[in-house]
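quick q for whoever's on today - can somebody do inverse folding on this one?? i tried earlier but teh output was garbage lol. tokens:
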């Protein structure tokens, strides 16, 4: 029969793949289902439900290294674990540890990994069933935490160039953006790749009704006539922890107002300053959107002041904001 493909099955002795040394994280410590194990020992079965269906929730936490104090500061861990619990409740996943236990475990992993640089912490609760079939209820979950060094996620100096994505942000009636669901990051990845492959640094996404939502992994603020404006929590955003810390700084340190409301895309074109924020992004000034300069096309003065206070606070250098951070050592 012409065109037929012959499949030759070759019988081989399958040797276990050596894992030690296969990854630069191989010897780091991770937390998996109640135990601290080496990264290369943290086996996840190929059938793991979450790998196939995106059925998990995660967090991104930062710890900041302060060289002059020889100290690592964990930022807002309890707030992140509280949000993880809310995300998990939406997906009906159980988090079998208290926020306090998870914070203590995070401190322990950072110590064991001897983290002495800016570090990212990734907790993940996910459906671990080895089962075909898409659903949320009645399936076992696993809980994982890893840590990895992380510098800037996007630039914080000089300003970034953004485009409005052709991809709309996932809607609360489809995949709730307020829950940090692994599967919904495909929406972010589509937007981010589109932006980068078109020569921009980051994407700004609109909600299904055309109002401004957020960046691919960041919340957004604009400044207009001395007032900060950010999309309200019903605009299909992740309710960012950085967003809420910055709202406090804007009011208490800059003495300015913050308004949460729906925003039109073209308001951004005419604003004085624009920035993205998030655990990864920190405070990242936007100097151009859709090939239009924001303000005078350089980092705005209010964004700069906010950045300075934020960066001091997260490194444990602002006594007023020491309650934001937990020291890892000593
Ligand atoms: C889609 C999205 N929006 C906003 C943020 C910012 O949230 P947070 O400040 O809590 O990190 C993130 C994550 O960092 C995100 O993934």
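ok took a stab at it. sequence:
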């Amino acid at each position: 029969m012409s065109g037929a493909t012959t499949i030759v099955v070759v019988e081989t002795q399958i040797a276990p793949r050596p894992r030690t040394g296969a990854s630069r994280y191989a010897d780091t410590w991770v937390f998996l289902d109640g135990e601290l194990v080496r990264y290369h020992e943290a086996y996840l079965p190929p059938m793991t439900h979450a790998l196939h269906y995106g059925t998990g929730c995660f967090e991104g936490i930062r710890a900041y290294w302060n060289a002059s104090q020889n100290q690592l500061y964990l930022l807002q861990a309890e707030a992140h674990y509280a949000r993880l619990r809310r995300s998990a409740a939406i997906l009906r996943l159980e988090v079998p540890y208290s926020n306090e236990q998870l914070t203590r475990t995070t401190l322990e992993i950072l110590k064991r990994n001897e983290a002495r640089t800016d570090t990212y912490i990734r907790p993940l609760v996910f459906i671990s069933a080895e089962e075909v079939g898409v659903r949320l209820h009645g399936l076992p979950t696993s809980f994982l935490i890893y840590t990895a060094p992380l510098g800037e996620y996007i630039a914080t100096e000089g300003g970034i160039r953004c485009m409005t994505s052709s991809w709309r942000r996932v809607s609360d009636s489809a995949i709730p953006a307020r829950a940090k669901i692994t599967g919904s990051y495909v929406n972010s990845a589509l937007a981010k790749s589109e932006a980068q492959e078109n020569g921009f640094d980051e994407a700004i996404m609109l909600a299904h009704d055309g109002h401004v939502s957020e960046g691919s992994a960041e919340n957004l603020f604009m400044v207009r006539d001395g007032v900060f404006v950010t999309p309200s929590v019903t605009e299909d955003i992740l309710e960012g922890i950085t967003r809420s810390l910055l709202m406090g700084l804007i009011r208490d340190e800059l003495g300015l107002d913050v308004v949460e409301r729906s925003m039109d895309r073209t308001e951004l074109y005419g604003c004085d300053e624009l920035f993205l924020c998030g655990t990864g992004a920190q405070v990242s000034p936007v100097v151009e959107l859709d090939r239009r300069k924001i303000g005078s096309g350089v980092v705005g003065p209010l964004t700069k002041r906010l950045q300075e206070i934020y960066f001091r606070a997260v490194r444990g250098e602002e006594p007023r904001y020491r309650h934001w951070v937990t020291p890892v050592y000593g």
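fwiw The mean pLDDT is 95. also The pocket of pyridoxal-5'-phosphate is lined by residues 60, 188, 214, 217-219, 238, 240-243, 278-280 (CB under 6 Å). so keep that in mind when u check it
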